[in-house]
Amino acid sequence: MTGPTYRRDPPYGRPEAVAPGVRRILARNPGPMTFEGTNSYVVGEGAVAVIDPGPEDAGHRAALLAALAPGERVAAIVVTHPHLDHSAGAAALAVATGAPVLAYGPAGVGRSATMARLAAAGLTGGEGSDTGFRPDLVLEDGDGVDLGGGSLVALHTPGHMGAHLALAYGDVLFSGDLAMGWASSLVSPPDGDMAAYMASLERLARGRWAAMLPGHGPVVEDPAGRLAALIAHRRGREAEVLAALETPGDAGALARRIYRDTAPALLPAAERNVLAHLIDLWERGLVAAEGEPGPATRFRRR
To answer: Which intervals hold domain Metallo-beta-lactamase (predicted)?
Structure first.
C-alpha cells in the first residue's frame, strides 16, 4: 500500500496560480490528515474572496494578505467547514481586512436526524471541530457571493461534516474536504455521515467541472474520474464491511480485519470510517446493532 507523494519543497506561503482567477496559498500545517497542509484560495480580482483561511497562524495570515495585488481588497472570507485547520484563522483575518466571514454554520449544524439523535445520546468523534466558530453570514445551498470577475455559488455537501460547503466558481469546483485527490475523506460520526457523504459525492459527480480544488493536496484535473473513483471506493468498502461481518464485531475489530496494510497511526481514522459505514448499513436495515450504535457496539449481519 503506497502513501501519498509529498513535494520536496512545498511552496508554503507563496501564491500559486491554479485556475483562472484563483491563487492558492499553502499553510504550513502538514500532517497525516492534512497532507502538505491546508490550501487557502484567493478568488477573483479587485474584490476577492479568501476560501478557507486555514489555521490560526500569523505567518499564514501575512502570506494571504501579501498575495493580494495592489488595489485588491478581501470582500468575503468563506469557510467550507468548521474544522480548526480550515476555519480557525477566519476571525483574525476578518479583523485585519474588515471582511465578513461566510459559512453554512457552526459545528454541529446540518446533521441528519439520526446523527443529531446519536450525538444527543453521547456519540462523540468530532476531532478537530472548531467549536467556537461562528460565521457573520450564513450561506445556504445555492446562495451566491459576487466577486470581481465572477461569483461563488454555495453547494451544501454534508458527509465529512454536516456544515460542509463545496463552492462553484464557473466550472471550477472547490471541494473542501469532501473530495480530494491524494486520499479519501474521513467520515467520523456524528459530524461525519456516510449516507450524506455518498449523496454529496453523487451530487458533485453530476456537474461538469474543468478542475477540482480540494482543501488539501494538488489540483484534481479529472474531477469526473476522481469523483467516480471515490464513489466506487466507498461502495467497495461497504462490501468489505458486510463481508467482515460474517463474524460479528465492533468498529475497531472490523477495521483491523479490513485495513490490514494501514499504518497504526491511521487506524483510529479507519475505525471512524468503518463506524460510519456501520451506522449507514444499520439505518438501511442491513445490519443489526447490539444497543445504540457507537464505537464499542457489536454489529452483525441481518
So the answer is: 37-216
